[in-house]
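Suppose a classmate hands you a notebook page containing two proteins, each written out with its sequence and a corresponding row of C-alpha cells. How would you begin to make sense of it? This section walks through that situation. The first entry is reproduced here exactly as it would appear on such a page.
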Amino acid sequence: MSRNRTDYLLDLNEILGPEMSRRLPGFVKRFLGRRLHIKDINDCIMKAEHYAGAGFFDEALDYIGITYRIRGTENLDLSRKYIFVCNHPLGGPEALIIGSIFRKIYGEGFIVPANQILYNMKPLQEFFVPVSIVPGKQKKEIGETFARMFESDSQVLVFPAGVCAKQIKGKVREMPWKKMFVTQARKYERDVVPVHISGHNSKWYFFLSWLSRTLGLKFNIGMLYLVDELFNQAGKEFVITFGKPVPHATFDKSKTDLQWADHIKNMVKLLSEDNGCTPNM
C-alpha cells in the first residue's frame, strides 16, 4: 500500500511513546521538540521531491546545506559484499552522507546503524538499524539485530566506536573500537573497508558529554542535542575517504579481535591524511 507524504511526518508523542508522552509536562515536550527539530524535519519532508526512500538522504543534506567530497571509490569492487567501518565524529551527518554516497554506488542495497533519535526519521527507516542510546541495552540489540544485518545481501556500514567522538584534554578523540565487526567479517566472509569522515561536534556538545561523565550519568545529555549538531553543520563540506578492502582472512590468531579492531581503527585515522581537513581522531 502506498503511503502519503504526511505519513512520514514526525510526531513527538509517537517518538516518546504513550507512557513517556503522558508523564512529561508540556514545557519539557516543547523543549524536546525544539531540540529534535521536529518542525524543521517535517518542513523538509513537505518540501522534498523524494520524501521517502534513499532519495531523501540527498533531500535532507540539501535542506540543511551540507556538502561532501568523496575519495577512494576506485578501491571498491561493486560485485562484493563488504563491512564498511567508519569513525564516528558527529552522530548525524555521517549517516546521511554515507546513505547518500551508498545510494549513488549501490542503489538501495545498504544498511546503516543509527541511534534511536536518527532512526525516528521515518523517510529513512528502511535503511537504518536502531541502536539503543542506553549502553546497557546496546549489546543485546547487536547480538540479534546485527546478525540479520550481516546475513543480508546488503552492504553494511558500522561505527565500531558505538558512540560519538569525545573531547579529552582539549583533543577530539575517537573512542575505542569494539571487536564485533572483526568477528562478523570472519563469520560471514565479508572483507572490511576502512572509511574516514572529517568533521567534529561543537564545544557545547563536548561540554555536555563531559558533564555527563563527570556526574556519572548512564545517559549522555549531549545526545539530546545531536539533531541540533546536525543542523549546525549547515554550509560545511565534509570529506569521505574509502580505503582499500582488508580481506576477512587477514583476521587470524596473530592478534586478538580487539587488537585487530584497533589496527583497523589506526588505518582509518591514516585515511585522513591529505584530505584538507583538521584531523579528528
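The notebook's second entry, a different protein, reads as follows.
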Amino acid sequence: MKMTKKAMPISKALTEVWEWKEEVYKDINNMSFEEKQKYFEKGLSDAVKLLKGKLKANPDGSYSIIKQS
C-alpha cells in the first residue's frame, strides 16, 4: 500500500516572503558587487526611515535598527 504525505498549507506570510525574495533576486541578478552593495544599503536606509529609527553598529559588525520614541 502506497502512502502519500499530506502537504501542510502554506501561510500567507511565507508566501509573501518568497515573493519578496524572488523580486530581490530579479533586481540584483545581473548587478556587479558594488551595485548590489548600493542596492542593499538603500534598502537599509529605507527601512530605517520607515521605522523612524536609528542605525546602531553592533560589535560583531552587524547593524540594528533602534526605534526612537
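A careful reader of the second entry would note: DSSP finds two helices and two strands in the chain.
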